[in-house]
Automatic annotation (TrEMBL):
It comes from the Bacteria. This is TonB-dependent receptor. Belongs to the TonB-dependent receptor family. GO terms for biological process: siderophore transmembrane transport. PANTHER family: FERRIC AEROBACTIN RECEPTOR, TONB-DEPENDENT OUTER MEMBRANE RECEPTOR. Residues 237-668 form the TonB-dependent receptor-like beta-barrel domain. GO terms for cellular component: cell outer membrane.
């Protein structure tokens, strides 16, 4: 492998599990540069919990399933398994919510988490995915469990034009399931000017389980049109200065008109059957996600100091299906607009033979305007406007080319303006509707100083030790609290923030030329966490209490010969809480956050240079952490028993001539009939659904 460069906040361990898997799929491993803390660094200097999902790995997984939530569940050890639907509810990272970014532009809506922030870009536009595992404040609000940053493709050649054209077909052994996708990548460089253009379109067919039965239409990805476009323009002013601008647009709309037949939890799955009621006024999905970014870099501003400036804007809307739980029925949506600026200075303090020191400092400015409404205009949450001004400083010292010490501080200064509004009348367990009340808005202020410190000691190639402490600061999901308000003023509501302390220890190394390993342990605590629980009328509410989440994860990677690689990863976690805040932790955090243990395994063979064969396995273990109600026999939300399941995927690609390649991917190769974890732990009849059955994808690719 070539030298790997990374950059990160000052957190824990560096995981290159997914990146290592790229090596057999390409003759020349591309240098990977991470931007997690906006600074290039050698991997041996990074004490951060990071998984890098490289471009070849993304492309290989895309052959099997183009859903980014599926790609991530097979490549990130401590990320929860996906639901197979448009929602990423339950797909937490280390038991906590994750902040999603595209090139550093925030995509998540922490003021009202709609669980649609992972599916906001087509994988064909992604060069790599950087995953910081563990609490992080480096990008501000919402990263309790870590950060997932999609880094988009860029020009890599000096040619005036180069590109990749792809067309693919998906389908199952059943009528109506045929889907098609096409993508085009163009990039090039003319003198000091470079560009990258990426276009993608996908039309999915019906989705069926292993018994050829239609999957539920709720949150369905079936019969959906997905569009993605990206334009990135760059100009090198001189060898030290560069300016870059980019636009990314994503849209997904479903025209599925399939009826719903509700099953019985644990017995009969909820399925699609007949025709829908055609009550939707808007196709469900994410009709728009626009991201605009302008950046300026100066490598030598003055006296060993570099400068990076990023300006960004995001406009997001997601729409959910029709529901009669609202008075007179309706469809809800989440609307969010963000505008921000990031200003970074990086100054080298000294550079001697045996030691180096540098300091990074700057400020982040963000305005986030979020609201949840019905499509007919009724407000479910009020308009919320958050302004965050956060100065920060990070320091790094390298000693004797073996020891790296990092530390940082960030001051969060957050103000939220909440409009007056009337709560929405929604159905209760007895069939009646809640009474709408008027709620006075107001202003909320949050301030905190959070920090991190990390240490990495590279003793020998076969043993590198690391340890870290890091914090995250997040506003609790304000929108959900307000929409279920029983108080006439926000001042009487529990709106305190979540501060997470993350502790991590581990070891990584290369024992020989054919064996790499890593083992990480972590503990994260919060004095006032937030978990969805079920009220007496079975409505969801947020419960605040002290929490502890702890776990382990690790991987092994073997390359006994050049044409063969195999390995895998394991992740396990547990979460406990103190409902009475008395120092005792007798209760468990429910399964909506604490994922079942997971094993990822892979085998890759390249018997001849033109042929690649890969097998991926995902095994989710049994999870039995709660007992049902002794009177009703029913599980509470998030506490359902989760059985184990194992899924195998097959990938084959063959290079034809010089520029052509044909790839075949088969998802759920053995056509296993199973349910996603969320179907079990949610413990609801309507959410007890089957997973996708065996499905094939055939892709033709031409490079020029």
């Amino acid at each position: 492998m070539k030298k790997v460069l990374l950059s990160a906040a000052c957190l824990g361990t560096t995981t290159v599990f997914a990146q290592i898997k790229d090596t057999l799929q390409t003759k020349d491993v591309e240098e990977i540069v991470m931007t997690a803390s906006r600074k290039k660094e050698n991997i041996k200097e990074v004490p951060s919990s990071i998984t890098v999902v490289g471009e070849k790995q993304i492309q290989s997984q895309l052959t099997v399933n183009s859903d980014i939530t599926s790609i991530l569940q097979y490549t990130v050890p401590s990320l929860g398994t996906n639901s197979g639907q448009t929602s990423n509810t339950g797909q937490t990272l280390r038991g906590r919510q994750v902040l999603v970014l595209i090139d550093g532009i925030p995509q998540s809506t922490p003021l009202r988490n709609g669980a649609r922030d992972l599916r906001v870009i087509d994988p064909s536009a992604i060069e790599r995915v950087e995953v910081i595992k563990g609490a992080s404040s480096i990008y501000g609000n919402g990263a309790d469990g870590g950060i997932i940053n999609y880094i988009t493709k860029r020009n890599k050649t000096d040619q005036k034009i180069s590109g990749i054209s792809q067309i693919g077909f998906t389908g199952q052994q059943s009528g109506g399931t045929l889907g098609v996708r096409a993508s085009q990548l163009l990039s090039g460089k003319v003198n000091k000017f470079d560009y990258t253009l990426s276009l993608a379109y996908e039309r999915t067919g019906y989705m069926k389980d292993a018994n050829k039965v239609y999957l539920t239409p709720t949150y369905s990805t079936a019969k959906m049109d997905n569009y993605n476009g990206m334009l990135k323009l760059g100009y090198d002013i001189n060898e030290n200065q560069r300016v870059e601008a980019s636009y990314i647009g994503y849209s997904s709309r479903s025209n599925l008109n399939l009826g719903l037949k509700t099953g019985v939890y644990g017995v009969t799955p909820t399925i699609g059957e007949g025709e829908g009621k055609s009550l939707e006024t808007t196709p469900q999905g994410t009709p728009k996600n626009h991201s605009i970014r302008v950046s300026y870099d100066n490598k030598n501003l003055f006296a060993g100091t570099s400068l990076n400036v990023n300006l960004y804007y995001q406009d997001f809307k997601t729409v959910y299906g029709y529901s009669d739980t609202f008075f007179n029925g309706g469809q809800s949506n989440v609307l969010s607009k963000k505008a921000g600026a990031r200003l970074n200075f990086d100054t080298q303090l000294w550079n001697s033979q045996n030691s180096q020191g540098e300091i990074m400092y700057g400020v982040d400015i963000l305005n986030d305007q979020t609201v949840q409404k019905l499509e007919d205009g009724r407000f479910w949450t009020p308009n919320m406007s958050m302004t965050n001004i956060a100065p920060f400083v990070l320091a790094k010292i390298d000693l004797f080319k073996k020891l790296t010490i990092k530390g940082g501080l960030r001051y969060e200064n957050i103000k939220v303006n909440v409009d007056d509004f009337n709560t929405l009348s929604v159905i209760k367990n007895d069939g009646t509707f809640t009474k709408s009340i008027f709620v006075d808005g107001g202003k909320l202020s949050y301030n905190a100083l959070v920090g991190n410190i990390g240490l990495r000691y590279n003793i020998e190639p076969y043993i590198n030790l690391f340890g870290s402490f890091s914090q995250a600061y997040s506003i609790n999901e304000l929108g959900r609290i307000l929409r279920t308000s029983t108080s006439e003023t926000i001042k009487n509501l529990e709106t305190k923030p979540i501060i997470v302390n993350n502790y991590e220890l581990g070891a990584t190394g290369q024992i020989s030329n054919w064996l790499n390993y890593e083992l990480t342990s972590y503990v994260s605590t919060s004095k006032l966490g937030a978990t969805f629980v079920q009220s007496a009328d079975r409505a969801l509410m947020i419960k605040r209490a002290p929490e502890i989440v702890y776990g382990v994860e690790g991987f092994l990677h073997f390359t006994p010969v050049k044409w063969l690689q195999f390995g895998g990863s394991y992740s396990w976690m547990e979460g406990i809480t103190s409902p009475d805040d008395n120092g005792n932790y007798p209760a468990k955090i429910n399964n909506s956050r604490i994922s079942a243990p997971k094993v990822l395994a892979y085998l890759q063979v390249k018997p001849i240079p033109e042929l690649f064969i890969g097998v991926d396995m995902l095994h989710s273990f049994r999870q039995n952490r709660f007992e049902p109600n002794t009177k009703t026999g029913l599980y509470a939300y998030g506490e359902g028993y989760v059985p184990d399941y194992t899924v195998f995927n097959l990938k084959v690609s063959c290079e034809i001539y010089k520029n052509w390649k044909v790839s075949l991917g088969i998802e759920n190769f053995f056509n296993r009939l199973y349910q996603p974890s969320i179907a079990w732990w949610s413990a609801r009849d309507s959410e007890f659904v089957n997973s996708l059955g065996k499905r094939g994808t055939l892709v033709f690719e031409y490079k020029f």
